[in-house]
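::Amino acid chain::
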Amino acid sequence: MINNEDFLDEIGDNHFSSNAKNPVRPDAFDLSDDEKIERIKKDVENILQTLGMDLTDDSIKGTPNRVAKMFVKEIFGGLNPSKQPKASTFDNNYKYGEMLVEKNITVYSTCEHHLLPIIGRAHVAYISSGRVIGLSKMNRIVEYYAKRPQVQERLTMQIVQELQKALGTEDVACIIDAKHLCVNSRGIKDIESSTVTSEFGGKFKDPQTKRELLDYIKLDTQF
């Protein structure tokens, strides 16, 4: 019989996701940001004290507050729907009909299994069906969904789904190539490996269109 704790560890070590949406409780935003910071601050203090750290030392005594603010305001800020970027779109008046590719968008996210960084690049593309979106909005959409405890497969899907909704077309694709520090710095400690995920919608499912996209971003991975 498998111990439940061992089973949950195995899920995390194998980067398995049980949900295509981030597992957020309905009461996730009942507390204000300041209230969350105060709670997390106490939890971080407890962790550091349990590890034996001296919280009276000048170097570390501010760490609980810094970590709490970082969690709420920065690296997990994308959990709050009030921070979702407005994906304003415009008429494609110049009738551009080929794919548009925004490549090498910086990805800073956090693995939800070990709360360690995921660092890499996202390549996002779409083919207009009458609407276009500002280039910076594509970066902001990537940033918004990355700033939460994540699984790379889910992040890739969320970026595509958000752009499909904004642009009114299925013809959207996203490829992410990222390093997971839970693989690089612990466990197997493989510092060279990276993880590539993809989500192809509409015309991007066509092998020729898919190949054209991969040529644009100079990625040799086969899908």
